[in-house]
Amino acid sequence: MPRTDFPAGALVMLILRVLRNGDLHGYAIAQRIRLLSEDVLQVEEGSLYPALQRILVNGWAKARWGSSETGRRVRFYKLSAAGRKQLEAEVLRHQAATVAIAAVLRDA
Amino acid sequence: MLVRRIWYLLNRRRLERELDEEMAAHRGRMCPEDQARFGSALRLREESRDAWGWTWLDALSQDTRFACRILRRAPGFTAAIVAVLGLGMGVALTAFQVFNILVLRPLPVRSPENIFVLQRRGPDSLSSALSYPEFEFIRGHNRPLAAVFAQTSNQVQIGRDAELRADARFVSSNYLVELGARTACGRLLTPDIDGQPGAAPAVVLGHGFWQRHFGSNPGVVGRTIYVGGRPASIVGVAVSGFHGIGWSAVDLWIPLEQHSWFFPGSDLFRNVSKHPLRVFARLRDSFTTATAEESLRPLVAEFRRIYPGSVGASQWLECVPAGHAVRIGLRDYQVVMFFGALVVLVLAVSLSNAGTLQLSCALARSREISIRCSLGAGRSRVLRQLVTEALLVTFVATAAGLLLSYWGTRAILLSLETPLAAMSGFDHRSVAAVIVLSLCSAVLFGTAPAFQISSGRSGSNRLRGFLIVTQVTASCVLLIVAGLHVRGLQHVLSAPLGFQYQDVVAIDPAFGTQGYSPERTRLALSLLLPRVQAVPGVRSASLCVMPPLGYDFWIEGIRATSGQYVMAHANAVDPNYFQTLRIAMVSGRVFRPGERDAAIVSQSLALKAWAGENPLGRQLEDGKVVVGVAANARTMALRDGEAVEIYFPFDAADRQVTKALLLVRTAGAPRIHLPAIRSAVSSADHQLFQYDLLTDKFERITEGTRKGAAAVGIIGLLTLGIAATGIGGLLSHAVSQRTREIAIRATLGARSGDIVKRLLAQAMIPVSVGLVVGAAAGYAASSFMKHQIYGIGRLDPAAYVAALCLLLAAAAVAAISPVRRALQVNPVDALRHE
Fold this sequence. Notes:
heterodimer; A: alpha+beta; three-stranded antiparallel sheet; B: alpha+beta; eleven-stranded mixed sheet; six-stranded mixed sheet; 27 helices; 54% helix
């Protein structure tokens, strides 16, 4: 299956979603998304870090320094309460949009 | 959110480092083929930083740094623009600040917002002052009013020998307490002590008076001071900065309840037809001005019942906010608007001139700007850069303007002799005005040129021409206004008054204020006059009722042949009057002693009322017969162009006798003879006598016109200078733009006259448009000023011609250097350059 471009705006939602299962660092976030989407969604690393900064500035996640499994100093992102709420809101909005799009595709 | 953003801003160096480290770690984990996809670390960092939302700040600081460099590189240009803008803003801010302090700013007293002046208002009448009985009546029945207090001002002589004159304010004994005054030493006036009948006469000194005449000695409390010859004890000194309600300085605070001690025989307490008191009130919480006025209505009716005829049937008491130094009415608004318009003109000149400067500087940079554009700077980016520069210049100019306005405001307030000068600092209104003004200036002077340049069009000559028209128009109006002022002043100073005021002393015995009865006055006068006439050095002495060169007037309507009435300034004078003031008799004679039913008219009046007929022997409506015609003299009609005056005999039997005024002509400088005159009258009740030299009076009465002419003149000349530099700038820009054209013309054999003509044509159009529009606007302004300033005619040719000539001369001077440059263009050099 070919790698697909990322739907706009969805990246933040996906990052928040994978962070819900535990704290991750940047590389791990990208890997996890790629893994879960069965290689379809390729996180463009170039867009990962701006998105992470936006998440931090908005207070949806907190960052702390730790060491990775390979022993490098990396930054772990931890979902905050505000981030949890944001995630729920975005998922709902996304689902509504998906349902609507599907309806149009089906009946048009 | 905002807090977090600011935190990001403050810690961004560290955060950037962390981001770099994090991304490096990420990159390290990737396989080599993917690493290439990661992209430039620099670009990523930029994009990540965008998420923090501070890019604009970076751009701003970059713009500002760049603007600073640009402005520093051209210090002359920057200084010129700052000076021009600063001047305009200084004038505007000064005007606002004076208005603010006098009209907008609450007085430094307790709760100024709840002070109202009570005025008696009728359908077509307004009395802003009330009588003492009315004040007392209101004070006794003050249901809607939380407090009632009153003031009235008097000039008094201080000291046992009346060596000092002071401005006393008689105030109800609760006044100082109500206004929250505090004392530097001693106590305030209080109703419990000073308001009681039979209380010991007490005086509180004003702070300035205490400093000037008592050397700030706290030991004065308890001492005796002679006010109008009557002893009173000083009980306290008010703090500096307290001057009650109004804008003038107060030397002494005296309890109104003790008025009769200082003016024995005064009928202030009983007289309902005299209205000397300004009565103030504080409203109770539950009342608005409307409900208070409503509940005061029955009070007025009741007062009318007790004192029939004292108050008109349809009059009511009006509550008007009074917590400001000056309360301006409808008529004053016109004056304020007029000065506001002048200020706007000054601003227009300075802004449009700064605009021209900005334009020429930026055009000189068009190469730089086109390079920036070709390097990928968008139009908005270039625009932002130019606007930033304008803002920066405005910022510096605002600082200069603030400095200027601080001194200007102080100077104006000091010349008004108001204690408010000590409070000429800035408040929130001033700050708002400064911000609005500087933003407007930045937009007006910076934005238009910036748009013009960033759009890359070369049509800037039209904008430039428009800016020149603005400058010329505005400075033309200002010069005409200034010219009219100067002409008015000239008129006041040089137009013959028709009498000699030099060497005349006016002595006001103030019998009326002292409460003299007509009988007592007659007695005093019969002793006084011979004594003064006997003083060596006194040429002649005379009695009259209206002071020459005064502000008061007495107007009589004289029936003319046509049946209409001619309004004439009237005075009652004794036979010596004409000799004392050196007014010649044209025909007829002066009054005979004891004569009653006679009148003397001025030549102007005779001409106006009975042109072509013999005025002598004419009977006036009240039976008086014209016995003489005096040469035209403007003894009272200083502010009228024509000396339409009429004189009636000073009649000792008349009720007016208590208004008697003594005029004394001395041989030579009157100041030398003043002590002798003083001692000659010393045995009479002289404590309240006021001595005034007519020369001083003349100075005082023309002072306002003089100061006004000076101020407007200075402003007019400054704007003229600014406009001239603008015209010079326009021309020299034209020369540098057209060097090649001029060179080609010169090579092809054009004579220098042609070149100059073509060059000047470019400046002549905007200048002449400006002159025409300016002259028209000046005409409009002068028709307004005609009513405000004495001696100003609507079409005073001298003022217009002078203004136009000055502007043309300034334009010509400004043109000299560019024209010379154009003539010196060396065709070979000029063409080789291209």
